[in-house]
Amino acid sequence: MIAIDLSGRTGLVVGVADKHSIAWGIAQMLAEAGARLAITYQNERLEKNVRELAGTLSDALIMPLDVTDDAQIEAAFAAIGREFGRLDFLVHAVAFAPREDLSRDFVDTSREGYRISQEISAYSLAALARAARPWMKEAGGGSIVTMTYYGAEKVVAGYNVMGVAKAALEAAVRYLANDLGPDNIRVNAISAGPMKTLAARGIPGFMGMLKHHEEKAPLRRRVDMRELAGTALFLCSPLGSGITGEVIHVDAGYNILGL
User: Fold this and answer.
1) What's the pTM?
2) Counting beta carbons within 10 angstroms of the beta carbon of residue 166, is it exposed (0 to 12), middle (13 to 18) or buried (19 or more)?
3) Is 158 helix (H, G, I), strand (E, B) or coil?
4) Which residue from 42, 162, 159 is spatially nearest to 113, judged by alpha carbons?
5) 143: which residues sit within 8 A by CB, 6+ positions away?
């Protein structure tokens, strides 16, 4: 068995909200592999919770980061530069759409709801990649991993404007992979099966979606957090060095099905 050792490597994990967050599951596994992490929180409401979680990791750097605020992005990466002097990987697990827009048909999406969902769920990947680039070049290359969902590829009832945002995110992965490849920076997405996260609970009919997935996926179950985190660990490690611009499905096989 080949163990993945990230000792001496540093990474930024964006998107931790609570102990059920995919970002937190990934952060725990990366830390177990020996990486030193920077963990961000979105706002004061989430700060206490995120600090308590990140405090269980060894020597984590904890800081605020609202991905819609360029000044906060600049400050966060300046702090990473001072503290780490390099950056080996970035995990982007950020998505949001207003609840009222999620609950309506896509054709009825408001202009503002569309803008918000695209800015937070898709554009933020480009903004963070741009800020990470010089620090990853300093490290000789790096890996950027984001989280997506099957609703970017096919119509999923209730996913609506978020499906369109995730489609933009997946396109951004490919364009960023091409832009950053000459710097030895890889960009990939993990398409996760439905998970009981804070964000998922805002999707209308989510529990029905989860039940359907468990009944129909080839493995007849949903994936667990360790399976998603393990894929992120692989992509952030040297073992994933030849993979970029990909969307890797970790969904118990659900994406292969037709009817």
Assistant:
1) 0.94
2) buried
3) coil
4) 162
5) 88, 89, 90, 185, 186, 187, 188, 235, 236, 237, 240
Rounded to whole angstroms, how far apart are CA atoms 44 and 63?
Answer: 11
Q: Annotated catalytic sites, by residue?
A: 149, 159
**Helix, coil or strand: residue 1:** coil
CA dihedral over 247, 248, 253, 254, signed as positive or negative: negative
Helices (H), 86-159: 99-102, 111-118, 124-138
Handedness of CA 101, 105, 110, 112 (dihedral sign): positive
Residue 96 tokens, joined: 């949001």
> Beta strands 10-14 and 36-41: pairing type?
parallel
Q: Quick: pLDDT tens for 119-156.
A: 999 999 999 999 999 999 999 999 999 999 999 999 99
Sequence-distant (≥ 6) Cβ neighbours of residue 139 within 8 angstroms: 10, 86, 87, 88
Q: What letters, b where the CB count within 10 A reaches 16 and e where it falls short, cover 116-155?
A: bbbebbbbbbebbbebbbebbbebebbbbbbbbbbbbbee
Place of tokens 């933020």: 124
Q: What is the 3-state secondary structure (H, E, C) of 35-94?
A: CEEEEEECCHHHHHHHHHHHCCCCCCEEEECCCCCHHHHHHHHHHHHHHCCCCCEEEECC
Q: What is the token pair recorded at 146? A: 């984001």
Angle between helices 22-32 and 225-236 (to 10 degrees): 60
Residue 91's pLDDT is 98
CA distance 35 to 10: 6
Which residue has 């995120």 as its token pair?
A: 50
As given in the structure block, the two tokens for residue 170 are 């997946």
Taking all residues of the chain, what is their mean pLDDT, rounded to a whole number? 94
